[in-house]
Structure to design on (89 residues):
């Protein structure tokens, strides 16, 4: 998922954004994505722990809703990582 996004974003999204805002402004703006990425990982951990349910067999599992929420959060983190990685291009 992240690789596909990067493969499409770098040739089609990066050049117009760089021309419009310039290299320095783009670099500084994309640096702000990294703290959001690093802070979101512990938050996802807390969310996952809150959405755990005990099954009938005594095994703890994520609830169906929790599973969807967690994967949406993981996808968002991957997307933010790929956007932030454009500063190295």
């Amino acid at each position: 998922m992240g690789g596909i996004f990067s493969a499409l974003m770098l040739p089609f999204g990066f050049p117009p954004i760089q021309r419009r805002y310039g290299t320095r402004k783009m670099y500084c703006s994309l640096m702000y994505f990294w703290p959001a990425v690093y802070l979101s990982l512990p938050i996802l951990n807390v969310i996952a722990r809150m959405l755990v349910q005990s099954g009938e067999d005594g095994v703890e599992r994520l609830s169906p809703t929790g599973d969807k929420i967690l994967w949406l959060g993981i996808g968002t983190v991957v997307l933010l990582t790929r956007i932030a990685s454009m500063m190295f291009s």
